[in-house]
């Protein structure tokens, strides 16, 4: 027999009137910023809280769109204990993050909603039944309890008390929208929050969709979140977790971030003495360089690298857009045929010397920046990029360029990958002025990644600055 779809009980079915009373007001600093915390008690004695930002009850802002609002049902196991059986904790976290990002909105944290209104211990009994194979809907019914006993009149009254008559609702549950509308709150938009689908919650999420009319929750793709500058709160084990672990710091960075990367032979060369740079062909780096490019605003290379490798510096193998290309080329030696100067929709900053002769007829996407000879110092280059809004920068090569940025002390991180070959003599990789005493040698906390036969060492210089 096909599973029956269930509607929640209408809010009128409950006997106790809400009639909320505002009891306390303070502030709550959280990892998403500081929220106004307002405490209410309803007519049945249940206590509720609201976390709000940018909401002025006395002078509601009627100019812009209505605020983001989440009416969040209490869930001790999900919200406080980090349970993966449901998506509550992740939704609460995502709602606070979105509200903080907009600087305006409210989470109404509704107590008494535990277990869709049946209470904590009844929910645990329902979990025990689910452990034996029945779904979340039938488990409540088997206990002789309603599938969904939640009422929303207290939430509606709280919103009205805060001067919020219309909302953009953060919820995947159409019943919440209908209940609020019935109670006089205008829902101009409703959308679910991004959550991770895991083996532990997959059945629960599927049942919510199939039997409780929930929308399909937008499932977080960890890489998409990182590209959007968001660190996934609870990435699924496996690739998502690895990506969040490796690159979360790039997504989270708010100010300037300068990352160097270089792949060299074990004895420290990037090419043979004739300039054969075949070392770069098989990177075996699981898309590491592509991912770094996709996460930064600009990628910087020296002219020699462009001349020997004719790289496009584009993001091609992973989802994401190509960063602005920055070519350091005092003598304007890079020819117009070079791929970095191609008219391929990716902007290029061609930084050349004052007297260098630059060909005419360059594509509009190429901006030529002129610098005096002594002005190619790494900090000066970074200032030029920053002035153009390019805050996250990857110094991609070659050996001289990365070494100059390292020597200038401007690298926050350096990925130095060593390939298991010995070149003996050739184009040097990392070389810098160094120091007489070994205890002054550059060091920093490191992480190591194995890329095929290569070892990549990530120096976190920012941690010791
Ligand atoms: N009875 C019961 N309650 C559950 C179960 N899993 C989560 N809950 C409760 O369900 C409530 C959340 O309801 P959901 O249906 O997950 O989501 P929603 O609040 O209706 O919709 P969203 O706004 O999209 O989160 C919380 O109070 C949880 O404690 C379960 O298996 N059985
Ligand atoms: Zn939950």
From TrEMBL:
Annotated ranges, domain Bacterial bifunctional deaminase-reductase C-terminal: 258-429
| Catalytic residue list | 148 (proton acceptor), 150 (nucleophile)
One GO BP on record is: riboflavin biosynthetic process
Please tell me where GTP binds in this chain.
70-74, 91, 114-116, 136, 171, 176
- Please name the pathway: Cofactor biosynthesis; riboflavin biosynthesis; 5-amino-6-(D-ribitylamino)uracil from GTP: step 1/4
> Keyword annotations for this protein?
GTP-binding, Hydrolase, Metal-binding, Nucleotide-binding, Riboflavin biosynthesis, Zinc
GTP cyclohydrolase II domain: which residues?
Answer: 21-190
- What GO CC annotations are associated with the protein? cytosol
CDD domains the record matches = GTP_cyclohydro2
**Which residues participate in Zn(2+) binding?**
75, 86, 88
- Gene Ontology molecular function: 5-amino-6-(5-phosphoribosylamino)uracil reductase activity; GTP binding; GTP cyclohydrolase II activity; zinc ion binding
Tell me its cofactors: Zn(2+)
User: Which InterPro entries is this protein grouped with?
Assistant: DHFR-like_dom_sf (IPR024072), GTP_cyclohydro_II (IPR032677), RibA (IPR000926), RibA-like_sf (IPR036144), RibDG_C (IPR002734)
The note on cofactor binding and number reads: Binds 1 zinc ion per subunit.
| Swiss-Prot/TrEMBL catalytic activity | GTP + 4 H2O = 2,5-diamino-6-hydroxy-4-(5-phosphoribosylamino)-pyrimidine + formate + 2 phosphate + 3 H(+)
Q: Which domain of life is it from?
A: Bacteria
Identify the EC number(s): 3.5.4.25
Family that this chain belongs to: In the N-terminal section; belongs to the DHBP synthase family.
Role of this protein: Catalyzes the conversion of GTP to 2,5-diamino-6-ribosylamino-4(3H)-pyrimidinone 5'-phosphate (DARP), formate and pyrophosphate.
Annotated protein name in UniProt: GTP cyclohydrolase-2
**Can you name the source organism?**
Arthrobacter bussei
Q: Which gene encodes it?
A: ribA
């Amino acid at each position: 027999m096909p599973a029956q779809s269930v509607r929640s009980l209408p809010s009128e079915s409950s006997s106790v009137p809400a009639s909320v009373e505002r009891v306390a007001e303070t502030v709550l600093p959280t990892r998403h910023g500081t929220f106004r915390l307002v405490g209410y008690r309803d007519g049945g004695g249940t206590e509720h809280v609201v976390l709000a930002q940018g909401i002025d009850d006395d002078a509601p802002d009627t100019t812009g769109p209505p605020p983001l609002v989440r009416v969040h049902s209490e869930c001790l196991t999900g919200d406080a204990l980090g349970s993966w059986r449901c998506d509550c904790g992740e939704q609460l976290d995502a709602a606070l993050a979105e509200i903080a990002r907009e600087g305006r909105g409210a989470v109404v944290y509704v107590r008494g909603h535990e277990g869709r209104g049946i209470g904590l211990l009844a929910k645990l009994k329902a979990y025990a039944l689910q452990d034996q194979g029945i779904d979340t809907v039938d488990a409540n019914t088997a206990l002789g309890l309603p599938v969904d006993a939640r009422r929303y009149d207290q939430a509606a009254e709280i919103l009205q008390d805060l001067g919020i008559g219309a909302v953009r609702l953060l919820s995947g549950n159409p019943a919440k929208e209908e209940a609020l509308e019935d109670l006089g709150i205008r829902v101009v938009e409703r959308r679910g929050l991004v959550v991770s689908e895991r083996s532990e919650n997959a059945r629960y999420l599927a049942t919510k969709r199939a039997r409780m009319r929930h929308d399909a929750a937008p499932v977080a793709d960890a890489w998409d979140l990182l590209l959007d500058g968001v660190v996934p709160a609870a990435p699924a084990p496996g690739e998502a977790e690895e990506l969040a672990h490796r690159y979360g710091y790039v997504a989270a960075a708010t100010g300037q971030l300068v990352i160097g990367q270089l792949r060299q032979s074990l004895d420290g060369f990037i090419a043979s003495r004739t300039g054969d740079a075949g070392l770069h062909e098989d990177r075996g780096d699981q898309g590491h360089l592509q991912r770094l490019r996709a996460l930064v605003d600009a990628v910087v290379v020296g002219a020699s690298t462009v001349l020997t490798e004719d790289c496009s510096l584009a993001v091609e193998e992973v989802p994401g857009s190509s960063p602005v290309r920055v070519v350091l080329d005092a003598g304007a030696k890079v020819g117009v045929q070079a791929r970095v100067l191609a008219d391929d929709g990716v902007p290029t900053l061609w930084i050349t010397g004052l007297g260098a002769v630059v060909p005419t007829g360059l594509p509009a996407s190429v901006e030529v920046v002129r610098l005096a000879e002594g002005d190619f110092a790494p900090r000066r280059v970074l200032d030029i990029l920053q002035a153009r809004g390019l805050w996250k920068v990857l110094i991609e090569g070659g050996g001289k360029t990365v070494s100059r940025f390292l020597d200038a002390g401007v690298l926050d991180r350096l990925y130095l990958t060593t390939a298991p070959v010995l070149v003996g003599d050739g184009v040097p990789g990392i070389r810098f002025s160094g120091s007489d005493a070994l205890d002054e040698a550059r060091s920093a906390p490191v992480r190591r990644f194995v890329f095929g036969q290569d070892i990549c060492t990530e120096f976190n210089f920012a941690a010791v600055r």
